């Protein structure tokens, strides 16, 4: 990971990721809030929870806060996901997590997950191949979080078969594809799904 190319903030505890974009439609006081990475749960918004029991140092990049990173050579803004997290102290084969959040009604999960996959793929392509931030040695993870529907985790029945996931991994070198609202930082090399 070429972390020197990114404006990142360190976290050594649990991370909560929320996106106020949809919430702001009914609560105009949040209209300019957008995506937030926080070390405490939100009082008014469901969020992706990244559990960090071992207190490892995790670098966090909120893509909304660094839009210049996603300007193409012709000045257009490249579509991106919400942000990324990475293992700051990884010696080799560190993990990188790309995050996409979707707040939607249950009936729209399938359509929203399809859109999320497209955003993650475009983001990965751009920051790995164009910007050279993610390196080939990095273990890339994706998460599509749908925080308002914890009861439906892991959402797999809506979109992908096991063969689809394997094809995605082979085609894009994405080690694991999560469809969760909770993840766990296990080491500087691995993420996992927390045990219930």
Task: Tell me what the structure shows.
The model has no long low-confidence stretch (mean pLDDT 87). A 6-stranded mixed β-sheet has the order 1-5-6-7-8-9. Strands 3-2-4-10-11 form a 5-stranded mixed β-sheet, with no helix packed on it. The chain has helices spanning 109-130, 162-172; strands at residues 9-11, 15-19, 35-38, 48-51, 58-62, 83-87, 95-101, 139-145, 174-178, 182-185, 191-192. It is of the alpha/beta class and 196 residues long.
Strand order of the largest sheet: 1-5-6-7-8-9
Radius of gyration: 16 Å
Beta fraction:
25-35%
Class by helix and strand content?
A: alpha/beta
Helix content: 10-25%
- Taking pLDDT < 50 over at least 5 consecutive residues as the criterion, the unreliable ranges are none
Overall mean pLDDT stands at: 87
Distance between the termini: 31 Å
Helix/strand order? EEEEEEEHEHEEE
Largest sheet: 6 strands, mixed
In DSSP terms, counting alpha (H) and pi (I) runs of 4 or more, how many helices?
A: 2
Shape: globular
Strand elements, count = 11
Keywords, separated by commas or semicolons:
single chain; 196 residues; alpha/beta; six-stranded mixed sheet; five-stranded mixed sheet; globular
